[in-house]
Request: fold
Amino acid sequence: MSKKEKLIRICVLGASFSGKSTLCNRFINNNFEWIYEPTIEVGIFRKLINITEDEEHKQYCMMQIEDLFPINHPYLQMPKGTNSDVDNMMSYYDLVLGNKRSGEKKKSNEKVLFKETFIHGYMYIYDMNSLASLEELEKVIEYVHIREEKEAGKKKSGLAAKILVGTKKDICPQQSPIPANKIEQLKKKYNLLSRKVSALTNSEVKEVFLDLARNAMDRSSGADGGQDSESEEESSGFFSFLGCGKREKEGEKEKSGCLIS
Reply:
């Protein structure tokens, strides 16, 4: 990657069947998969794009796109400590939604394929034909918003760019169960960009990634360079925010689970 090409890390979040992996596949490979395969681990992709789309005044950025497991994955409904897979998945989500780095040091001889950097943009995915997919997403949007407000000026990561993306607009969009004013309220409350896309017809797929990349580039160039301290004032993890993983006080009983929805 040339020094002139800025790395933009994008995390794609959404419920199962929302179409986030299909959207990523269409953008990265220009391909549409008819067979649904649930996301069981993080998919990481890179694509070099010219965000100006101007052949005379090109400005390239390398998009590192991370397609996360669904926000309603069964493991995320389980209590912390159930097993290592559950804990690892919850820890990864806390890192992503908290916009923190793991702090793990790579061995000197270990080849680093994907750079662990701060997240520059969140892509919030919902199915336009499923109100539940949007409702499950709202807690994630709310947490990131509250966490960023609380940590304003304290972290180098600053405010990430965010876009709310409605998928499957090719399926009777006029009959969507989601009220139009609901989307407008979320956009205004959380300062979100938004688009409606179709991975099937390839409608506005490239545009949604360009919107987020451009906004992330603008925010990154204007970052104030906070202290990035792990102070006590910083927000607790996402699952603590939801009230998950706590033991009952009496007799160390079974840990409580948590439903994101």
